[in-house]
């Protein structure tokens, strides 16, 4: 995901640049060719496979480092590279964010998963020059009704947004559908982080908002655009804060957060979900 404040900074700073291994900064929205989309399908399929397997593997008593080790080995077993590891110095192959942790949780051997935890696993894979990116929320064991409902609403919001994606529609159409779905269920949309274009770079233009905004241009969707759509939904306030590790973001009020994400390609009359786990 992208930080909203950084987007506003980059809007007025033409020299903004990402110094990231094996990723080169490109400007503007890229329309992918059929060949490029087929390559993205490969990296995205790896991500979908790893997340599906983590969902089956996870259980109370495991550490988040256990999951990270599994993900890294599994991604590499396909001949791919973990997209996240080393990205702006991030130390791991997955982000593992538990309960009130919103995004960018760092796996740790001392962070033990418990019965009732709401765990977000976000990961990416880089293969043949292209990235795939996806996130799931996992209800571990017997979770509270509020945790299950929050995850369900975040999932519903993702697919509500995806239903508005087709050539000729705008990103404001997508953002509005996501925001309305979340708010009508009594939750809040995190505004500090957004979805993004994805392809040769892990983060490309355009920014994919989960809420209505006039801060940046409203983008018309075109066939061949590839996007990572990722609503982040909080149980309470939308406001967040970053811990001293400079990565882990938590809810400001200590309440739960959920996230779901897919990498998709825009088609004339809809989308293809490249990170679909049902295959």
General description of the model:
The protein has 279 residues and is α+β, with helices and mostly antiparallel strands. The protein has one domain: Creatinase/methionine aminopeptidase superfamily (Creatine Amidinohydrolase, Alpha-Beta Complex). It contains 5 helices and 16 strands. Helix 2 packs antiparallel against helix 3 and helix 4 packs antiparallel against helix 5. The protein is globular, with a radius of gyration of 17 Å. The protein starts with a strand and ends in a 6-residue tail after the last strand. One of its GO terms (biological process) is proteolysis. Keywords: Aminopeptidase, Hydrolase, Metal-binding, Protease.
SS elements, strand count: 16
- Give the fraction of residues assigned to helices: 25-40%
Shape: globular
- Regions with little confidence, pLDDT below 50 for 5+ residues: 7-25
CATH topology: Creatine Amidinohydrolase
Largest sheet: 6 strands, antiparallel
Mean pLDDT: 93
> How many distinct folded domains?
1
In sequence order, what are the helices and strands, one letter per element? EHHHEEEEEHHEEEEEEEEEE
Question: Which secondary-structure class do the elements indicate?
Answer: alpha+beta
Strand content bin: 25-35%
CATH architecture: Alpha-Beta Complex
Measured on Cα atoms, how large is the radius of gyration?
Answer: 17 Å
Terminal CA distance: 25 Å
Binding site for a divalent metal cation 1: 122, 133, 261
Cofactor: Co(2+); Zn(2+); Mn(2+); Fe(2+)
Enzyme class: hydrolase
Family: Belongs to the peptidase M24A family. Methionine aminopeptidase type 1 subfamily.
